[in-house]
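Researcher: Following up on the earlier apo prediction. This time include the ligand. It's flavin-adenine dinucleotide, with the SMILES given after the sequence.
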Amino acid sequence: MKLPFALAQRFVAAEKFKETIPKIKAFNEKNIKVTLDLLGENVQEKSMADETVDIYIQLLDDIQHAGLTSSISIKLTMIGLDIDENYCRDNLFRLLNKARDHGSFVRIDMEGSAYTQQTIDIFKEAFKEYGNHVGIVIQAYLHRSGEDIPELADLGADIRLCKGAYKEPDLIAIQKMPAIREAFKEYAKILLEKTPFPRIATHDDELINWTLHYTSENNIPKERFEFQMLYGLREETMEQFARDGHHARVYVPYGTMWFPYFKRRLMERKENVWFVMNTMFKK
Ligand SMILES: Cc1cc2nc3c(=O)[nH]c(=O)nc-3n(C[C@H](O)[C@H](O)[C@H](O)COP(=O)(O)OP(=O)(O)OC[C@H]3O[C@@H](n4cnc5c(N)ncnc54)[C@H](O)[C@@H]3O)c2cc1C
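Model: Understood. Below is the ligand-bound prediction.
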């Protein structure tokens, strides 16, 4: 059954790239950068993974032609991680060749824990070859992040730090919010100390205020890190960050395969269900 897009539009910018352009321009005009994400995951057919890489390559061209300040985010299962790791890495490198030619940037989103090790392995290979044209995401709720963060920070990798959006068992991930927040802070300190430009991806006031306080106490200038939030959430806060001279970036998802992303947003916060209901009934 195809669900109406109206349901998702609180969190998903559009179904087609063209329709995202005015929205991205509006962010850029407010000094807010964008990361575009073509939605989709767990592709099982090579033909579809190949096609997805072509679409991403075209997207890098389209972003440039439209004059947008936007990088892209991808999921490795969109470009063949479920099919074969080497095939997926080759697909990523094909995309990164284009990103390097363009002087643009590709972030590898982090998916469920079944993919963490492979994602980090592929990222490390890509980082060796493409340096700061590629970045990764680390999820603070994973127990293993206590080792991954220092290792990737020592490489000087470009890391987006977030809490983690997938349902994971206690053996794999911290379950309680206060402990996730403590882990987030500990990792943010390491990233702020050791990496050139960490990305703090959260809507959580406690973590935002902690970051503002910690960076000011430790004389870490605003130019050295970035706040990131998801499309549809806390836009006014992002505008305020930009006005205050902070780097601010919104993650803008689009595409027809929006359902899994939309479901994760509903699951993580009950207020998000109300946002969606409001959008529906205002129409
Ligand atoms: C840019 C970006 C990229 C991401 N990439 C990934 C990824 O690659 N992999 C992955 O697993 N996850 C990713 N995530 C999702 C992330 O892991 C969390 O699931 C998600 O951000 C929710 O956690 P939170 O810290 O933002 O706030 P929550 O834990 O949802 O909320 C904590 C508190 O923050 C405040 N708050 C939250 N939302 C609002 C709001 N709209 N208005 C006012 N206050 C609010 C409330 O006080 C709330 O109690 C990404 C998130 C962002 C922002």
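Model: The chain has one domain: 13-282.
Researcher: Noted. I'll compare it with the apo version next.
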